[in-house]
Amino acid sequence: MLMGMKTEIKKLPKSLVEIMGTIDAEEFETFRGKALTHLGEHAELPGFRKGHVPEKVIETSAGEMTILEEMAEIAIESKFPEIIMVNKIDAIGHPTISITKLAKGNPFEFKIVVAVLPEIELPDYKKLAAKFTKEPIETEVSDEEVEKVVMNIRKQRAPKVEGVEGENAEVQEVKDADLPPIDEEFLKSLGDFKSVDDLKKLLKDNMAKEKEQQAKEKRRMEIIKAISEETKADLPDVLVQSEQNRMIAQFKHDVSQMGIKFEDYLKHLKKTEEDMRKEWEKDAEARAKTQLIIDKIAETEKLSPEKDLVTKEVEHIMEHYTDADQDRTRSYVEMVMTNEKVLEFLETPVKE
User: Fold this and answer.
1) Phi-psi category of 270—alpha, beta or left, where left has phi over 0 and alpha has psi -120 to 50?
2) Distance, CA of 67 to CA of 292 (rounded, Å)
3) CB contact set of 281 (below 8 Å; sequence gap of 6+)
């Protein structure tokens, strides 16, 4: 129970919570002094230095309604943390505040609507994940696949055919005799290879690793998709919007890396940033839901990255990006490492 205040909490759709609050007249009046001080710090009146205007003068010049509005703002700012703590509300994003009753000598009434972390009902994620982890990932690379890569390397290093460009060059028949031979000079141009077998062995190993990585990523996506389809969660708009912001920021960065201004790129596409947000809304919703699922599994299974590894990675990032905010960087690193822990947990075959 909060002193001098009553609250009524009501759950709304889309993981929103409505807080109807009433601060009694006596408690509300205690905020008058702070309101007058704050108004006085910014008041500019003839004959007084800024920040040194007497309270009596402020009361006369500002007017009662202005003072009450300032009191209301300070009261809500002061009481909101207490409200969410006492009522155990996991608030996210900025609240929407509206005043429903404001008059001198009367109780102050207000309404706050704020998004909260949604309640998430997970399916049997271990059982779902097990469907995709029964069989080991296929990483075998055939000799034929290796030969194709070797052939492509030779084609890339073959002399250009004079007078033949574009699509015609691709369909032109290339004979083995027209390609550079795999001799000592050719091998040296590619690296420290003593024989063609050495080259093929390295290619085969690299291709196997690449095939394993691609198959691993594909399986992870399938596992998360299967879990997501059976997960119940009422996502608040603020989470989806936050994910859209991240997607837009990443896209802007990618475009700038190509030496193109984001605004020019949008003009070329004949789109606005708002158009892109709408197009990406479903993807943003899926990403937000996926992160909620991963966070919930991490909490349930008590999965978290080692603190020393987090610190080491944060230090590494800060060395290269000295202007980065350290707290945000740490939060990002913890999220990435926690996600990896959860995905490793899900893709580990269950021992029968």
Assistant:
1) left
2) 43
3) 240, 244
102 CA to centre of own chain: 39
8 alpha-carbon distance from chain centroid:
33
Residue-wise pLDDT for 228-271, tens only, equals 999 999 999 999 999 999 999 999 999 999 999 999 999 999 99
What is the rounded CA–CA span in Å between residue 261 and residue 265? 6
* Residue 32 located in a structural domain: yes
Q: Residue 294: inside a domain, yes or no?
A: no
| pTM higher than 0.70 | yes
Q: Is residue 313 part of a domain?
A: no
CATH number, domain of 91, equals 3.30.70.1050
Parent domain of 46: 5-117
Based on the structure, what is the number of domains in the chain? 1
Torsional sign, CA 226, 126, 244, 270: negative
Q: How far apart are CA 153 and CA 151, in angstroms?
A: 5
Q: Is residue 181 part of a domain?
A: no
